[in-house]
Amino acid sequence: MTVLQQTAASPRPVPPPAWRPRTDPAPLLPDQEPFRVLGTPAARDADPALLKRLYAALVLGRRYNTQATALTRQGRLAVYPSSTGQEACEVAAGQVLAERDWLFPSYRDTLAAVSRGLDPVRALTLLRGDWHTGYDPREHRVAPLSTPLATQLPHAVGLAHAARLKGDDVVALAMVGDGGTSEGDFHEALNFAAVWRAPVVFLVQNNGFAISVPLAKQTAAPSLAHKGVGYGIPGRLVDGNDAAAVHTVLDEAVRRARSGGGPTLVEAVTYRMEAHTNADDATRYREADEVETWRGHDPIALLERALREAGQLGDADVAAAREAAEEMAAGLRARMNEEPVTDPMDLFAHVYARRTSQLREQAEQLRAELDAAEETDRTDGTEQTEQTEQTGEDHR
Ligand SMILES: Cc1ncc(C[n+]2csc(CCOP(=O)(O)OP(=O)(O)O)c2C)c(N)n1
Ligand SMILES: [Mg+2]
Q1: Neighbour-count burial for 238-259, b at 16+ CB within 10 Å, e otherwise
Q2: Residue 396: its pLDDT value, please?
Q3: Which residues surround ligand 2, an ion (CB under 5 A)?
Q4: Quick check: is 197 catalytic?
Q5: Probe ligand 1: pick from 211, 212, 224, 227, max atoms within 8 Å of CB?
Q6: Which residues contact residue 111 at a Cβ distance below 8 angstroms, ignoring those fewer than 6 apart?
Q7: Residue 323, Cβ neighbours under 10 Å: how many?
Q8: pLDDT in tens, 234-291
Q9: Closest to 223 (Cα-Cα) out of 26, 24, 31
Q10: Which of 37, 117, 221, 328 has a beta carbon 3.0–4.6 Å from 245's, enabling a disulfide?
Q11: Catalytic residue check, 285
């Protein structure tokens, strides 16, 4: 019995015509296999200058990841969620947007923000635990690196929708992990984006894990790209380690959004090569063989091989990319080794436009404690000097 027959025979009111699907779901369905460019005939059509730019950015990005991880071991960085192995997604996301567009990264997407032009040290301020976001989001149009999962997605939709209402030509690209697609915010963001036809692109980096939870325990969906279909959003599946493919798919999605075509959900299939962060031990929940298999699908090696085979990259280019990466890493080390100047009172800055009574009270309490500590230091210092003068002792 169809719904119509059912309603005709029953005393229930006939639903309005809008119950019918308004969109043919077929074109929304993602391809069965992730889209690839490198090693396929599509590589012949790719712009060699773009591919070389992506290659240099990948080499730089990998070095950024290894350097930031080293800084956690040296106690210079509290935590670093590395994107090693995911650089193709990071770099493509960082470079595909126009200057007027907005990027909404998660905590793992520092590299995307840096690829978009953000200062590498400022990008790490939050992860060093020094200050709030660490950078002015308006400078490069990069929203704060979001630690609460998926909360950046409704923000991206709101910004994109507001921009369109104002007549501004702005696209928002929002990044989220596979685990983040189980969050309510993910679903709310997709629904609003679709209903409003907001100029937004969702990039899901499916890196196989949400900390220790593998994808198979996270979802029973055919793919994460399929999750768009229920909202009327087309899903695209792409090889997340193929920088040329990720850039192509994101570029198409950005163009579509810009021309009023609405949102796209892109799932990039990739792999988290390192532990979740430096605070995690991935050997407790996954096999070394799996990691080795993915090492054979390394985003830098894939692009380097394709470019070399096409005669578009030589030893000198590779050496230049590596040299630039070492230079960046040396600069990052030097600057991260400087002692940061912080004011504990900044804890209360930029939380609310107008401070709540509780926050005012807490700020006053902290101010009093800091003043008292300063006073103790000062009197201790004076007593120490007086003692030294009296006894002639020097406690160095
Ligand atoms: C709302 C919320 N719930 C839980 C957490 C704790 N948490 C931090 S990272 C993480 C896993 C996220 O996995 P995924 O979305 O796949 O991103 P990935 O770390 O793999 O990039 C969880 C559960 C959080 N940060 N925010
Ligand atoms: Mg993940």
Answers
A1: bbbbbbbbbbbbbbbbbebbee
A2: 35
A3: 177-178, 207, 210
A4: no
A5: 211
A6: 61, 64, 65, 83, 87, 90, 91, 94
A7: 11
A8: 999 999 999 999 999 999 999 999 999 999 999 999 999 999 999 999 999 999 999 9
A9: 31
A10: 37
A11: yes
Q: Which of 15-19, 122-126, 196-200, 283-287 has the lowest mean pLDDT?
A: 15-19
Q: Compute CA distances 18 → 1, 21, 114, 196, whole Å.
A: 20, 7, 45, 17
Q: How far is the CA of 311 from the centre of ligand 1 (A)?
A: 41
- Rounded CA-CA distance 258/200 in Å is 9
Query: What is the distance between the alpha carbons of residues 244 and 248, in angstroms, rounded to a whole number?
Result: 6
**Helix 184-196 and helix 152-166, axial crossing angle in degrees, nearest 10:** 20
Alpha-carbon distance of 296 to 290, in angstroms, equals: 10
Task: Kindly provide the residue ranges of all beta strands, DSSP E only, lying in 227-360, ordered along the sequence.
Answer: 235-239, 264-269
**Closest ligand to the CA of 180:** 1
- pLDDT the model gives residue 340: 87
Contact 176, 150 (CB under 8 A): yes
Could you tell me the sign of the dihedral formed by the alpha carbons of 261, 54, 205, 106, in that order?
Answer: negative
Reply yes or no on whether 272 is catalytic: yes
How is residue 245 written in tokens?
């493919």
